[in-house]
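for the recovery benchmark. tokens below, seq after
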């Protein structure tokens, strides 16, 4: 077992992307094995590919924007939010069924019926188009402001595995949900439960110096080296690195960025197959 595992009950949060190219079964099989060993894990999932499929089925093309800071995100209007909620539910059902077949009782925690993330709505998004900044209003995405881990702990105490979609309660409107970034949702959850590990899995082997070269992976890094580490992040990796920093600063011990397509992706990543980040006392990224 990896040396990051401690004597107390191990707590982990893992985020698996919903984009095409991610592989889910190896992770679910590993979570089942880890749960049988007594570890406690929460699974945060995306829903982007299912959102795209449902959107096109009802004649709505997903609309993505890039902020002046280089962050790419989906514009979510009122109609798109309803589609996204449906996509999250459908994906959650698929994951609950798959985990159930592996002997794991997964419990979806939706903001309408469970404690978890709260967010502040970002009504407008700034989008860079043809070199100019355009303001888009009517957005139903939000920035997470708090995370109540009570129900995550309750599910763990009952022997289950909490399943968290990228949705948060709108702190200003009771009963309303907001779309939030899945990586940052996972970071908020990991910080709130003082996770031993936050694993962010996608379809790349980690943080790469050259996105076209898998062998250029950054092996490790610390908060003290963050300004250097950030220079390598491009595209969606920029947000994953931001989430990693938020998790570490919030109290998580270690963040792993690794490939979901590996057999036992968490263990493979912790054993050198991913990028391992921590608050301090680790060899320099390089």
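predicted aa per position
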């Amino acid at each position: 077992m990896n040396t990051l595992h401690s004597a107390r009950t191990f707590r982990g949060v893992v985020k698996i992307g919903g984009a095409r190219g991610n592989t889910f079964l190896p992770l679910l099989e590993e979570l089942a094995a880890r749960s049988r060993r007594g570890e406690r894990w929460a699974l945060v999932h995306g829903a982007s590919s299912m959102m795209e499929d449902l959107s096109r089925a009802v004649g709505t093309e997903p609309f993505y924007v890039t902020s002046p800071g280089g962050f790419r995100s989906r514009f979510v209007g009122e109609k798109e939010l309803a589609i996204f909620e449906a996509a999250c539910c459908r994906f959650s059902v698929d994951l609950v069924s798959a985990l159930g077949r592996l002997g794991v009782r997964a419990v979806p925690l939706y903001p309408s019926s469970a404690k978890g993330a709260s967010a502040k709505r970002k009504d407008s998004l700034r989008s860079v188009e043809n070199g100019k900044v355009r303001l888009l209003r009517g957005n139903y995405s939000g920035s997470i402001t708090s995370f109540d881990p009570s129900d995550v702990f309750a599910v763990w105490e009952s022997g289950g595995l909490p399943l968290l979609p990228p949705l948060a309660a709108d702190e200003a409107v009771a009963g309303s949900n907001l779309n939030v970034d899945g990586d940052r949702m996972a970071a908020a959850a990991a910080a709130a439960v003082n996770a031993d590990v936050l694993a962010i899995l996608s379809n790349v082997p980690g943080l790469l110096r050259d996105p076209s070269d898998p062998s250029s992976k950054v092996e490790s890094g610390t908060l003290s080296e963050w300004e250097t580490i950030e220079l390598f992040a491009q595209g969606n990796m920029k947000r994953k690195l931001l989430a990693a920093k938020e998790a570490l600063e919030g109290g998580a011990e270690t963040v792993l960025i690794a490939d979901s397509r590996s057999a036992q992706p968490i263990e493979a990543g912790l054993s050198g197959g991913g990028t391992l980040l921590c608050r301090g006392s680790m060899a320099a990224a390089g």
